[in-house]
């Protein structure tokens, strides 16, 4: 069974419309799909048709703060009309606008004219750094989006504006109130030491987190084996997803996930 529980549309920082993503998933043989846009569930209101052989799991990817850094938590199998969740996602959206304004001011000081107007056209209210990268590519300041992050937007660069997102505990509460399962997204992507990663997983479990993303896009077998071991250690359910955004920029293909180890319980057993 082809399962992909982490994907993005143009309602956050993906390139495809929600319906186009569904169509690509069908073409790739995906039988269980979750659209997990950053801090928004708007994609689900724009889907006209879901294939009969596809199980669409409603989801979201919430940006939150942990240990003065940003991590991401997936909420899977959520009720997208639950008021507490929507209220907090609206706060996140406003936070994104504030951060975007700060990034824009920095870029203006670097000689880039009025980036915010065009970036808001590209992104609507759910603005992220990838939209600034797209704008910098459009105006010829960079040759690729990757270069935009390396020069302007990546960690330690001028446009890397740190922001206090929702607290991890609050994000998990939002997901649980909406009847969903909280899953730590791409644990290896944070590049934490083993000690720090174990601390994160321990607190995530204490706050009510139930799963971790053992398979995230294209990753080495060593990473997969380590995350499998951690899932067993902390008794987490395992999840998998491509983290698909677009055809380019190194993102793995939608639905093309290696299978979970049979030594851990898959999170979709809870759906």
Structure summarized in a few sentences:
The chain is an alpha/beta fold and 271 residues long. The protein has helices at residues 18-27, 83-109, 115-123, 129-138, 145-153, 168-177, 194-206, 221-233; strands spanning 3-4, 32-35, 55-66, 69-76, 166-167, 181-184, 211-216, 237-241.
Question: Would you mind describing this structure in some detail?
Answer:
With 271 residues, the chain is α/β, with parallel strands linked by helices. It has a domain at 3-83 and 181-270: Metal-dependent hydrolases (TIM Barrel), CATH 3.20.20. Helices cover 37% and strands 16% of the residues. The chain is built from 8 helices and 8 strands, in the order E-H-E-E-E-H-H-H-H-E-H-E-H-E-H-E. It has helices at residues 18-27, 83-109, 115-123, 129-138, 145-153, 168-177, 194-206, 221-233, and strands spanning 3-4, 32-35, 55-66, 69-76, 166-167, 181-184, 211-216, 237-241. Strands 1, 2, 3, 4, 5, 6, 7 and 8 form an 8-stranded mixed β-sheet that branches. Helix 1 links the parallel strand 1 (3-4) and strand 2 (32-35). Helix 3 (115-123) crosses helix 4 and helix 4 packs across helix 5 (145-153). The mean pLDDT is 92.
């Amino acid at each position: 069974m082809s399962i992909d529980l982490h994907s993005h549309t143009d309602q956050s920082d993906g390139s495809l419309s929600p319906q186009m993503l569904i169509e690509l998933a069908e073409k790739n043989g995906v039988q269980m799909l979750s659209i997990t846009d950053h801090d928004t569930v708007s994609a689900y209101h724009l889907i006209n048709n879901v294939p009969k052989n596809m199980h669409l799991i409603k989801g979201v990817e919430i940006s939150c703060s942990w240990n003065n850094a940003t991590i991401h938590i997936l909420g899977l199998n959520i009720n997208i009309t639950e008021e507490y969740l929507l209220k907090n996602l609206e706060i996140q959206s406003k936070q994104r606008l504030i951060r975007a304004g700060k990034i824009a001011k920095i870029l203006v000081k670097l000689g880039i004219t009025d980036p915010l107007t065009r970036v808001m056209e590209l992104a609507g209210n759910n603005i992220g750094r990838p939209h600034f990268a797209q704008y910098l590519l459009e105006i010829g300041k960079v040759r690729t989006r990757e270069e935009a992050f390396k020069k302007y937007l990546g960690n330690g660069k001028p446009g890397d504006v740190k922001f206090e997102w929702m607290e991890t505990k609050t994000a998990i509460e939002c997901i649980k109130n909406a009847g969903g399962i909280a899953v730590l997204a791409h644990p290896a992507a944070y590049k934490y030491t083993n000690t720090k990663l174990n601390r994160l997983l321990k607190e995530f479990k204490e706050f009510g987190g139930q799963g971790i993303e053992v398979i995230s896009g294209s990753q080495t077998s060593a990473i997969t084996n380590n995350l499998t071991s951690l899932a067993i250690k902390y008794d987490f359910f395992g999840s998998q997803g491509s983290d698909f955004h677009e055809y380019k920029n190194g993102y793995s293909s939608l639905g093309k996930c290696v299978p979970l180890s049979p030594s851990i319980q898959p999170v979709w057993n809870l759906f």
